[in-house]
Amino acid sequence: MKILLDECVPKRLKAHLHDYEVYTVRELGLGGLKNGKLMAYCVENKFDVLLTIDKNMAFQQNMAIYPIAIAVLNSKSSKLEVLLSFLSAFRGQLVNMKKHAYYIIDK
Prior knowledge:
Layout: E1 2-5, E2 21-24, H1 35-44, E3 49-52, H2 57-60, E4 69-73, H3 80-83, H4 87-94, E5 101-105
Parallel strand pairs: 1-2, 1-3, 3-4, 4-5
């Protein structure tokens, strides 16, 4: 499973997802890239999931044209300690995620 962490997600979250192939926007030099271009990058580089806390992404992107899943941690905070509480639910849903879909992950 190849996962990209959006720039609004702390890069330290990567260490807690060691069971997967995880990259951060920053380490790939994609900081500041608009969502549409980021989605295109994900498709071109065969990512399975874009993990974010940006709840507006579903309204900004036409998921029908992007063969990737967007997983949104339904958090009001980007603090690592808070996001860690969502990881169990994220892992549980990850195996069933479909491409062209948007998922809200609650605790």
